[in-house]
Design brief:
mainly beta, 38 strands, about 10% helix
């Protein structure tokens, strides 16, 4: 059974506050406000220009945002044959995917746990060792993605130190319509989706049901067990809207996912016997998101959101011979959130956003409570944010924001940010921003209490550390301690100061060039370190604020939108990123000449700064391509997408804490995909869409280094729209 929580006091507190907030909102809607001639759903007015909400927490024209933002529409996802979030982000400029407990996303050189993933503005939870697996999220039912690069803690708090990716679902359409699609590909990979939506002017709903499954694949036939397991993933997503008056819009979102996966592996016992096991896994997650938008006057809007979500996993290793369960692990995370935001449009030049909320979070599982501490630790958080936008003139646009976070487990934080947009002409935009960000200690870094029965080592979070060491000492398991445990400083949040400078120019109607330079300074980075040694020779590990790093680089993108003839066009986007991600202590040691490398033949040699390519998993150079030929006369789209990344370090064989030997790197590689999409009318009001595609055309595989590259894969899909 998946772990069930017994202590829900913080959840009851949050939902109690939610009820009060709803009452206040309802009271506001009861006021008599003179109606105007606007439509009942005027708060959903569709504009021709691209609009984004993530960068400023209010709707704004994309080209007038003062920070680096990009948008990926559902049209792009569909023509490229993308079915999971990782498929979309893989070909975005400056985005890098990395295998580490799932498919994680790197932004501006930061690891996955520094980027906040949102669904309609609310956080997606469920990370393993900091990684949120982007391949677990289907893109079916999405309208578009919004990607904000650079620290966004001044609006979103922790986990937004590197940036924000916001998944925006499509609103329910008026009238009745639907679609059904089926896709089959290599490795018996299938994706089936049914979408139904409908409504009238004041009421609408949209339901999406998706099943994604695969038999997995095996890139190492000489080793018992597949490279990736077989799985079946079901997702249901419901979105509805209700317009109660010209001033009040209510939205409700609900989502649930369940996945079962199976695999096999073998292990040696005493170096002689081979035991074979079945690896069984299960994941269950759900979320619910009611939202009320009230237009109190022509210049004041009130937005109240409630959000609850849960993420649960369980894993069992069952011996095939006798069914003995050798290992089992359970994890359960729950989050409840209530928030209010007020937008005040003072005049045509000034807009203020004020907001605040409460968050309650609780976890449990096999790796918590081992020392006798609370097996279901929980935390509470209150936060307030403010933002002001000032359109000083047609030339200058200023944006200032600040957020205060008060958390039950670490010191209060204040994170400011300032950005400016300069528009010398209608063809040129210049952007600059400076801001601070922070990442709070993760639950595992605070509460983990775990001993590996096979390896014999133990890991404690900062809170149960003292108690855990005392227990091991009482049991006679401690040989020596490296620190006075009771005198260790409490764990601090990681901090950063970031600078972004760039802009865009349109030298021709068909060409847009964008560039952005960034520099991030991070201190108090949390890392693991041995704190004691056991009598069995293994170590006890803890979490400490140790490292200081920096990431810096340049991102360049050129977009071409050319009308070839009357009914055909060509869209091309080329991106490039130069990145340096370095540990300051390593840089200092290299400059002082105290770092040495060792060749496979055993010879040592001194390393210089030029031998340092950066932190593990970061490519200094990467490039991306998105291209599409669209023929409207033929209802035909040909899409090509590709990505390339230079070599990057992944291991340290000579003990110097960096990659410097050729056998410590993953070689550079390129991935190219293509898809051909053809639409035609079957009968009246029924359209069929056929797509044939190919992924990883160059057939690159690195079974142990990049297990997410399964080689060349083909697929075909059929969709009916009615």
């Amino acid at each position: 059974m998946i772990t069930q929580h017994r202590n829900h006091s913080c959840m009851r507190l949050i939902w109690g506050v939610c009820a009060v907030m709803l009452f206040c909102t309802r009271a506001a809607t009861a006021q008599q406000v003179p109606s105007d001639s606007s439509r009942a759903d005027s708060m959903r007015t569709v504009r021709m220009a691209p609009m984004v909400v993530t960068a400023t927490r209010s709707e704004k024209v994309l080209e007038d945002v003062a920070v680096p933002v990009s948008v990926i529409t559902s049209d792009i996802m569909e023509r490229e044959g993308a079915i999971r979030l990782g498929d979309v982000l893989a070909y975005e400029m400056g985005m890098a995917l990395f295998d580490d407990h799932g498919m994680g996303l790197q932004v501006q050189g930061f690891a996955s746990d520094y980027t906040l993933i949102l669904l309609d503005g609310e956080p997606v939870i469920g990370r393993t060792a900091g990684t949120l697996d982007v391949d677990r999220i289907t893109v079916k039912g999405l309208s578009h993605l919004e990607i904000v690069r650079g620290p966004s803690s001044s609006l979103y708090g922790s986990e937004a130190l590197a940036g924000v990716v916001n998944l925006i679902t499509a609103p329910p359409a008026e009238g009745m319509q639907g679609s059904a699609s089926f896709r089959i590909g290599s490795h018996a990979t299938s994706d089936m989706t049914l979408q139904m939506e409908g409504g009238r002017e004041r009421l609408g709903a949209r339901l999406v049901v998706n099943r994604y499954a695969s038999d997995g694949y095996d890139l190492t036939p000489g080793i018992y067990g597949p490279t990736t397991p077989s799985f079946a993933d079901w997702t249901g997503d419901l979105r509805s809207r209700m317009v109660f008056s010209d001033r009040v819009l209510v939205r409700l979102g609900a989502r649930a996912t369940i996945e079962n996966q199976e695999s096999v592996f073998a292990s040696e016992t005493d170096g002689l016997l081979e035991d074979r096991y079945n690896d069984e896994g299960r994941r269950l997650e759900w979320s619910i998101h009611p939202e009320i938008k009230v237009r109190l006057s022509d210049k004041v809007r009130l937005n109240t959101t409630l959000y609850g979500t849960s993420y649960q996993t369980e894993t069992h290793h069952r011996r095939q011979d006798d069914g003995f369960v050798n290992y089992e692990d359970e994890f359960d995370q729950t989050l409840a959130k209530a928030e209010m935001q007020v937008d005040v449009l003072w005049d045509t030049k000034h807009l203020t956003n004020l907001g605040g909320g409460l968050i309650g979070e609780q976890i449990g599982g096999s790796r918590y409570g081992e020392t006798g501490s609370d097996p279901n630790p929980e935390s509470t958080q209150a936060y307030f944010f403010a933002q002001h936008e000032w359109l000083a003139s047609d030339l200058l646009h200023f944006n200032t924001s600040v957020r205060f976070d008060n958390h039950s487990d670490y010191a209060a934080r204040v994170t400011p940010k300032f950005a400016v947009l300069v528009r010398p002409s209608g063809k040129i935009r210049l952007r600059a921003s400076v801001g601070s960000g922070f990442k709070a200690p993760a639950f595992r870094q605070l509460y983990l209490s775990f001993t590996n029965p096979a390896g014999g080592y133990s890991v404690f979070g900062s809170l149960p550390m003292d108690e855990g060491i005392r227990r091991l000492e009482a049991e006679g398991q401690i040989e020596q301690k490296f620190f006075a445990i009771s005198q260790l400083d409490p764990l601090l949040a990681e901090n950063s100061v970031a600078f972004n400078l760039g802009g865009s120019v349109e030298p021709f109607v068909w060409l847009t060039v964008q560039v952005n330079a960034f520099h991030n300074n991070v201190r108090d980075l949390i890392e693991t370190q041995p704190v004691a040694q056991k009598t069995n020779g293994s170590f006890v590990y803890g979490y400490f604020n140790l490292a200081r790093i920096y990431t810096r680089g340049v991102e360049l993108e050129a977009s071409i939108k050319s009308q070839l003839v009357k009914q055909s066009s060509l869209d091309i986007s080329l991106g490039y990123q130069f990145l340096q991600a370095r540990d300051r202590e390593v840089v200092t040691a290299l400059k002082e000449g105290t770092v040495f490398g060792r060749l496979p033949n055993g010879r040592d040699y001194r390393l210089g700064l030029g031998d340092y390519t950066g932190m593990f998993g970061r490519s200094p150079h990467s490039a991306s391509l998105r291209a599409a030929y669209i023929n409207r006369d033929l209802d035909l789209i040909v899409s090509i997408q590709g990505r390339w990344r230079s070599r990057y370090g992944y291991r340290d064989l000579d003990g110097n804490n960096l990659a410097n030997r050729s056998d410590e790197f993953v070689p550079d590689y390129a991935v190219l995909g293509a898809a051909v999409t053809k639409s035609f009318t079957v009968v009246q009001a029924v359209e069929a869409v056929v797509q044939v595609g190919l992924d990883n055309a160059f057939n690159h595989t690195y079974p142990t280094l990049v297990p997410s590259l399964p080689g060349r894969r083909g697929y075909v899909s059929l969709e009916f729209n009615f």
